Amino acid sequence: MIELVVFDMAGTTVRDKNFVGIAFQEAMKSQGYDIDIQDINPLMGYEKPLAIKMMLEKRESDPTRITEELIGRIHTRFVDEMIRFYKTTQELAPLPNVEETFEILRSEGIKIALNTGFSRDIADVIINRLGWADQIDLLVASDEVASGRPFPDMINKIIAELNISSAGNVAKVGDTEVDINEGINAGCKYVIGITTGAFTREALLPYNPTHIIDDIADVVKIVSHSHSLA
Predict the structure, then answer these.
(1) Average pLDDT over residues 48-72
(2) How many domains does the structure of the chain reveal?
(3) Residue 129 contacts by C-beta under 8 Å, 6 or more apart in sequence?
(4) Which 8-state DSSP code applies to residue 155?
(5) H/E segment holding residue 199
(6) How far, CA to CA in Å, does 74 sit from each of 31, 32, 60, 82, 84?
(7) Residue 190: domain span
(8) Which helix (H) or strand (E) holds 183?
(9) 10 Å Cβ neighbour count for 3?
(10) What pLDDT score does 229 carry?
């Protein structure tokens, strides 16, 4: 039976009208790299320093310029932009049916965790402003583990900290390719793609999630079905 559902943040549980992509674009521009937003979106779920490195490898013809220091400067700019944005924006809101879904799952004894390609400092601002500290059991950010997505480290850490018996009792929900690969690599029973963020249904399909949904409320049906059979 499902004991835990791990949800991504931006684009899955937290509304994101490309705020993250735009901050990313600005951070890259600050160091002289002009990047189209459609080239940024596919990298959204990755740990951000890794996404920056992937961007630079496409855009920088001189590989010796791609240093930890350059990546660090761009990432610092990105983090500062995001923290300032999330602290002040009136646009920060849960996606439809998210809080109701958390409540129903927890009422059924299922634990709720969030994980993210953001660093912890950004994720904490979002959680605090949405008032979610009491609605979830755990938050793990990409800078709290050795390797971010698509590696399973964040999910493994959540399983260990919440004393979940195995990844076979876990569902992962996310809106990007790396969310799906993270869930598969962790061995989750259900790996659920959602179309409320960076990827369409057609874009998610090739990564073989167990389900693709348009509304997060459908998670309840998927995991409760397994729950009631247990």
Answers:
(1) 95
(2) 2
(3) 86, 87, 92
(4) H
(5) none
(6) 7, 10, 14, 12, 16
(7) 4-16+95-229
(8) helix 177-186
(9) 20
(10) 46
Q: What is the CA radius of gyration of the chain?
A: 17
pTM for the full predicted model: 0.91
Per-residue pLDDT, 230: 40
Q: What per-residue confidence (pLDDT) applies to 227?
A: 56
**Coil vs helix vs strand at 115:** strand
Q: Which of 172, 169, 171, 146 lies closest to 157 in space, CA to CA?
A: 146
The DSSP output letter for 174 is: E
If asked whether residues 66 and 161 sit together in one domain, one would say no
Is-contact 138 158, C-beta < 8 A? yes
164, 210: one domain: yes
Domain edge (last residue) among 56, 88, 120? 88
Q: What is the mean pLDDT of residues 99-123?
A: 97
Q: Does the pLDDT value for residue 127 go beyond 50? A: yes
Among the listed ranges 15-24, 88-97, 146-155, which one has the minimum average pLDDT value?
15-24
pLDDT of 7: 98
Strands 138-141, 170-174: pairing kind: unpaired
What are the residues facing 194 on neighbouring strands? 213
Q: Take residue 99 and report the two structure tokens written for it.
A: 């809080």
